[in-house]
Design goal:
The protein has about 140 residues and is an all-alpha fold. It contains four helices and no strands. Helix 2 packs antiparallel against helix 3. The protein starts with a helix and ends in a 29-residue tail after the last helix.
């Protein structure tokens, strides 16, 4: 089967091409795999937003006695934040070849931060690190 240069260019420019994947494409989804870098940035985003929410809670508690409405506002902010962290953590577990439930293991977050993901496709999807390399069949030169 022959590939001409136009076919290769169309494949690389298609929105579904693996080389066109971007970070945080589906941050609230529990499906798929993400790399260490995206997980690390996700963790930093979570921590920064959590500190802002914590500061708001602290400021509200010093200003007046926290009421039901204040707690509701904080709850509305924390639920999406926790969902984001759990979804990103589950995808990182998937990249390591494990179920998303592994994130509940104490200190497993350090393993997720530093361990390289499984190479190639696994049960949870394609390798996010792997770019589809297309070679010229005659010269074995990457296009």
């Amino acid at each position: 089967m022959e590939n001409n240069i136009l076919d290769v260019l169309e494949l690389r420019d298609s929105p579904t091409s693996p080389s066109r994947r971007t970070m945080f494409e589906r941050p609230f989804s529990f499906n798929g795999r993400i790399r260490r870098a995206e997980f690390g940035i996700s963790f930093l985003i979570y921590f920064a937003v959590y500190l802002v929410i914590y500061g708001m809670m602290n400021a509200l508690s010093h200003r007046h006695e926290p009421g039901g409405l204040d707690i509701l506002y904080i709850f509305v902010l924390l639920v999406p934040l926790l969902w984001f962290l759990w979804a990103q953590s589950a995808k990182r577990c998937h990249d390591l070849g494990n179920s998303g439930w592994y994130q509940l293991i104490p200190f497993y977050v350090f393993w997720m931060l530093f361990q390289e993901g499984q190479p190639g496709e696994n049960w949870y999807g394609e390798d996010p690190k792997e770019l589809k390399e297309l070679y010229d069949e005659d010269d074995k030169i990457r296009l």
